[in-house]
Hints:
By secondary structure, the chain is mainly α. The chain folds into 3 domains: 1-30, no CATH class; 34-174, no CATH class; 177-314. The protein contains 12 helices and no strands. It has helices spanning 3-13, 18-29, 36-65, 67-88, 104-126, 135-151, 154-172, 180-204, 212-228, 239-256, 260-279, 285-313. Helix 1 packs antiparallel against helix 2 (18-29), helix 4 (67-88) runs antiparallel to helix 5 and helix 9 (212-228) packs antiparallel against helix 10 (239-256).
Amino acid sequence: MTTLERLENWKNSGSITTEQYSVLAALVRKDRFSVFLELNILLYLGVLSFVAGAGWTVREYFASLGDIAVVGSLSIVVALSLWYCFSRTKPYSNLQVESPTLAFDYILYLGCLMFAVELGYLENQFHILSSQWNYYLIFSAAVYFVFAYRFDNRFVLTLALSTLAAWFGVRTSSFEILRLLHVLRTSAMAFAATALVIGGVPFRAGIKKHFFATHLHIATNVFLAAMLTGVDSSITWWCFPALLAVSAAAIWGGIRFRRFAFVAYGVIYGYIAISIRIVDKIPRFETALSYFFASGVIVLVALILLARRLAREA
């Protein structure tokens, strides 16, 4: 009996599913298979490695290379990246647009990262904005948002949101250290709200509606993480009910729209917040350990069951 015949028998007996049979049979027949994901990972790692190498070279050898050589080289890379993207991009559309080539998204991402390296070098060498250097972040975020929407690029959109978050963080660092945690929490909440607004307004206008999921993922995690820092304090008592409310909303929305990631966010953050409150009242370490073991198993099983249910209904 051949391997394919055995697989056929296993499928007919219910030992494996039809999908599993298709995958295994293709491997046995040595059919062609897609390496799209692997190529994308390699391209992404290649871009990050190139930028990291360029940053290291600038830091170590800028004195011997000279400002003109460094700024000129960085500008050439940025200009070539943008030229490639503008010369090959498809016409703008409010709908989702497919990338014209496999490397397109990564070349744009490379250009944006090198742009950040160049801005950092210029400020480090010439102190153009001096103590107001945080405006580079808000300017960079604005540029990245424009490129993300123009070229329909989620990589650059994530870069724009992370740069905007960095700007909120830098603004926070100017406050007194004793108030830092409270200010960080407020800053994180402000960033989450801003990310939702920036994504929600174009969504309502029908502009790149598929981008809203990225904004929602980041805003939900940032807001829940911010609330989590205050659940064990009597001063910030409101953080606990706020976190539970948002967690419940995330779970409901995840089930309603079949987005398991949001179900996981709500369950995990809610579980951690409730556990902090419960463990704080448990006097013995052994009892706390037993609680974590039992509750952790329950939460894990619940997530698995929910994931299977959403997969069946999808």
